[in-house]
């Protein structure tokens, strides 16, 4: 049991399995303290009492046992306690999140894993499923059963499964960029002007090309080759404003101009030249 926020004490105290670290805090009235979520997302809930929170030096709110707080990694939190408070924190590691994401089918509106904006936190309601997950993990952590670590990891997967049904919590849990598809999409977006070798990309992620392509489609909804093609052709629309068709093709990694034109026409129902004449030459 912890009564201060201290990284060294957190490393010693608590209960840890392959997937989750469980920290239990007993905080006295008039306590103030700071802590960080460090490398992993943290799921924070209150058993009794309440917390006055200042998140990342600006966002202020109060939450109670009716709420849970999900924090992405490297969040900075200041807490003021005005009544005796007991709290439970689950540190959810990347292996846990990735294992769940790899085994389920995501809704279409959650398949885009890399976004231009990130969410700093999520304050949710402890509804039935979440409350049940919290209780199951807590009870299992207190059990003397030899299989309690197995049960905790099982319940932790259920908690993540319930959390990722919400778009915001999904983004937070998937925001550490350690998921292989996050890494792949980031690499593709940063190198979209070059020739991207999918086999080499898969190898860099310690995956076979077939397994990588299967996982990519499961998460993103399309194959990696289609994702790359679509990204290049989207950029082509903008590049055509100031560049010739030939320059656009070369700048996007297409050495065969005819192939680029064919791909463009298949997607936009007109050639790059026709698009340029229609939308830019008149300006």
UniProtKB/TrEMBL annotation:
One of its GO terms (molecular function) is sequence-specific DNA binding. This is HTH araC/xylS-type domain-containing protein. Residues 182-278 form the HTH araC/xylS-type domain. Keywords: DNA-binding, Transcription, Transcription regulation. The keyword Transcription regulation applies. The keyword Secreted does not apply. InterPro entries: Homeodomain-like_sf, HTH_AraC, HTH_AraC-typ_CS, Tscrpt_reg_AraC-type_HTH, Tscrpt_reg_HTH_AraC_N. It comes from the Bacteria. It holds the Pfam family HTH_18.
